[in-house]
Known about the structure:
By secondary structure, this protein is mostly helical. It has helices at 23-45, 47-51, 60-89, 92-110, 120-143, 154-181, 196-219, 236-253, 255-284, 290-318, 320-340, 346-374, 380-393, 397-413, 425-440, 449-458. It has two domains: 22-223, Growth Hormone, Chain: A (Up-down Bundle), CATH 1.20.1250.20; 234-459, Growth Hormone, Chain: A (Up-down Bundle), CATH 1.20.1250. Helix content is 73%, strand content 0%. The longest helix is centred in the first third of the chain and has 30 residues, at 60-89.
Amino acid sequence: MNDGPAAPVDAARPPAPSRRFGWPVYAWGLWDWGSAAFNAVITTFVFTVYLTSDSFGPGADAKLGWALATAGLLIALLAPVLGQRSDRSGRRSFWLIVNTLLVVLCAVGMFFVTPEPDMLWVGLLLLAAGNIFFEFASVNYNAMLNEISTPATIGRVSGLGWGLGYIGGIVLLLIVYFGLISPEVGIFGITSDNGLDVRVTMLICAAWTLVFSLPLFLTIRDDKAARTARSSRPGLWASYRQLLRTVADLWRADRNTVYFLLSSAVFRDGLAGVFTFGGVIAAGTFGFSAGDVIIFGVAANIVAGLATIGFGVLDDVLGPKRVIVFSLVCMIVAGVAIFVLHEGGTVVFWTLGLLLAIFVGPAQSASRTFLARLIPAGQEGQIFGLYATTGRAVSFMAPAAFATAIVLGTAVTGATTQDAVQYWGILGIVAVLLLGLLLILPVRSRVNEESLLVLNQAA
């Protein structure tokens, strides 16, 4: 395994002595804390559940799936090109601000989605658009990682941001759940009549995102000297042609980065599957109530956030590949143990489920730093756009593996219903994690200077 403490990989991007672990790093990390409102509260726990309630009529679940699938397709098609264009224009911070504000506006718009069938498509449109703008903002946000860190601190900086995202989302979820959604009469006398509790939650999410994004907006500005004139920028189709040339150049000069993009897409989908299906397994196999699932989700996210911040130090000391491999191995072992011990009751899932949660964040954060260390200077937005695209391209794997494993379990055990063998789905998630582990093992964590020179000349 060719891994170790990070070292500069590009002579064109020397580490600046002034880039220490100071306020710009915390300002950058606070964006993750604030933007988690969209992922944790809107997409995962509150607004999607609201849209699929009976008030919006039959078939809302399927329509939700199609809306999010369409958003995912648009993200996959547009993210690399928009990242490339922000690189070339020198306006990365500007586009981060624009896309973040569009996410805020989508959240504000959700306040007007009243619980009636005619409003379903309005809600789905706002949710899909919010997902798209959130991913576009994330591309520029990730691309800033090299600007606000050094090779010696990049792991801790990435871990801080990712960890704050986990914790910030859960803090907000607890506030709105116990302040608005759970009580019959919430703060300011708000009730569930006409969906007001959920709708006001959307306004709180918008304010949360905006307030905690302001430090980054005000701290990290685009270098005016690096901006290019609008007339000198390529058009949209020319950008796609440039993107294809970049992918071809990557394959020719730095195939290692291509292998990483593919392997990380697989194991990142497995990591997403842990949280996506964790609550499902907790309820269906281990008998957790709806309240128990929320409590477990809160605990899991807090554990993941703290672990991610802590593992950032190991990322800088040992290198990101070792963190990823160690995390994946531990998760595979824990997943198999949950399958084997599934009859042990809630204690088993609380213990092993939280063990799984410990390693999800560190693997995600280390994946980001791994790629950041490989990217030639000036191509951060474009390559992180490809990072988003490859992730979207294989996002079917964990759900498909989960479902396939349950079908296989039904056949092997002879169970009369699939619900009786739901725990077999754990093996599907483990299989995706194992495949990702096998794919990343041969990937080198350093790239040679000659490859970077070819890529910079091609750009």
